[in-house]
Design a protein that fits this description.
313 residues, alpha/beta, globular, Rossmann fold, 12 helices, 14 strands, 9-stranded mixed β-sheet
Length: 313
Amino acid sequence: MNLTARVIKKLLRTQPLGRAISKTLHLVGADQFSRASSIYSGFAPENVPICIPLSNGTQKTVHMASALGSDYVVKSIWKHGWLGHEAPLPLVFARLAERAKVILGVGANSGLYEIIAAAVSNDSTMYAFEPFPPAIRWLNHNIKLNHFEQRIQVIERAVSDEVGTAKLYIPEKRFGDTLETSASLNATFREKHSEVVEVPVTTLDLFVEKHEIDRVDILRADVESAEDSVLRGAENILAIMKPWVLIEVLDSAKLDDLERMRREHNYRVFWLTETGLVEKETVCYSPESPNQLLCPKDKYDLLRQLLPELAIT
């Protein structure tokens, strides 16, 4: 690294000067340079544009609030592009969502995947389940920001395999004033908690039955090691509607339960890696590939058609 580059990086890391430089670049329309400088300054604009490429070669642009700089997910997208968070999950999700009519998003947080789904399909309905009040606030904000109020329904509930109430454990803040993405019904997911919130809980099977929903095309769950409970409460959906299932599999996941449901409902499992989708014989944990796709066996050929950009092995 030459002397000039080292000096520039030092300036950008110096606050508040660094953020002022990145903000100025953004205000004058030099977003490419603003994004690059933000990697060091930590700046993110109030509303971050997200450009989503569609399968037909066009693109859709949506916006998400940086939540006063507290939304780590949105800030990552600002710095690194729309695949800057959990790649290649956003691409896989977007391609599946283009053909979807009904999507269940469990653990919606501030709504990245719900916003993506509404952008890529004009006639789908998203049900966004989120019990954490600060996340609900920004989820609703982002829905209104993009005028998706008729497309995305926010369900202020946690999802599990039983109906009632449960304790939502909010991890101790480790990175300053950041919008929490790791709240969980699992008390042991984090060693320390900043607070515990009592929240209403439903099951997806009951929700679908109660609202007379006759199809589910995608079920996405990111609930910090409680994915097995979500799927146990959705076994009728898995058995009858055969949705694509996108889940996060962490080291504390109940792998035996996840594998039992995968096998009984006739799904294949794929790790989502940076180089493509890699099929595995069973549901298993990978620190490099926590996001995994459960594909109904009869949809394997369709999966290959929908994702020509990615290798599937």
